[in-house]
Amino acid sequence: MPRRPLVVGNWKMNLSAAKGRELARAVADGLPPGAVDVALCPTFVHLFPVADVLRGSRVRLGAQDMFFESSGAYTGEVSPAMIAETGATFVILGHSERRHTIGHLEDDWMINRKVRAALAAHLTPILCVGETLAQRDARQTLDVLTFQLTAGLVGVSADAAERLVVAYEPVWAIGTGRNATPAQAQEAHAHLRRLLADHWAAAAAQAVRILYGGSVKPENARELMAQADVDGGLIGGASLKADSYLGIVSAALAAKG
Ligand code: PEP
């Protein structure tokens, strides 16, 4: 069965609640018909207001992070059940800004706990992996991806394959305007799928959607998504405007249609 393309917008720490609602409405109203899944990931406090706008539409809701414990003395954290309660069905985990930029500096052990907790709460984790520029220059890209994917999936069984999404996001391409070439993306995605096949089995690996993220724009989306193992995109900057985001959704449809 062909994998259905998926385009996810990561709004990061942008937009007011009112602007987020406006953008969500414009995306829902402008969504082209066709076999593509689309999701928007606002900041935690905008999940409920954006959910209100998206109710009844084809656009899904996602969160940008989540804690792995179900409740307790974890000031500032948000549990899997709390995310699910908003109506969100996706959750981005291990984003490079959380791995490398923000004070928490999340490690692979914590990201794995989050992946397992998301699956247990019937959320779809979007597990982000990707190398830094120094790692690419040192030709360590595939080793980094092997480590991050393997560590992220410890204790996750093949039954989860259809519900798992992986995002390949080279750190040097995020928010920099410099995207991976289609060939670089395909090489990384094919490597990730081979690892999934080794970890589980070929059929399970074929079911997993692997998104590319890193400076995707309407102009480069089609060529990236035309690659055999690129099943859609995780979009940052270009998801903050309805026109550019919808342009990427259309490119995904054109590439995979
Ligand atoms: C991201 O934040 O996941 C991302 C890919 O950002 P951008 O599209 O802005 O590079």
Question: Would you write up a description of this structure?
Answer:
The chain has 11 helices and 8 strands. It has one domain: Alpha-Beta Barrel (TIM Barrel). The chain starts with 5 loop residues before the first strand and ends with a helix. The chain is globular, with a radius of gyration of 17 Å. The protein has helices at residues 17-30, 47-54, 80-85, 96-101, 108-120, 133-137, 141-152, 182-199, 202-207, 218-225, 242-256; strands spanning 6-10, 37-41, 59-63, 90-93, 124-129, 165-168, 209-213, 232-235. The chain has an 8-stranded parallel beta barrel, surrounded by 7 helices. α1 runs parallel beside α2. The structure holds phosphoenolpyruvate (PEP). Residues 10, 169, 174-175, 213-216, 234-238 line the site of phosphoenolpyruvate (PEP). Phosphoenolpyruvate is lined by residues 10, 169, 174-175, 213-216, 234-238.
Strand and helix map with partners:
Layout lengths: L5 E5 L6 H14 L6 E5 L5 H8 L4 E5 L16 H6 L4 E4 L2 H6 L6 H13 L3 E6 L3 H5 L3 H12 L12 E4 L13 H18 L2 H6 L1 E5 L4 H8 L6 E4 L6 H15 L1
Parallel strand pairs: 1-2, 1-8, 2-3, 3-4, 4-5, 5-6, 6-7, 7-8
Helix pairs in contact: 1-2, 1-11, 7-8, 10-11
The protein binds phosphoenolpyruvate.
The site of phosphoenolpyruvate (PEP) has 13 residues, from strand 8.
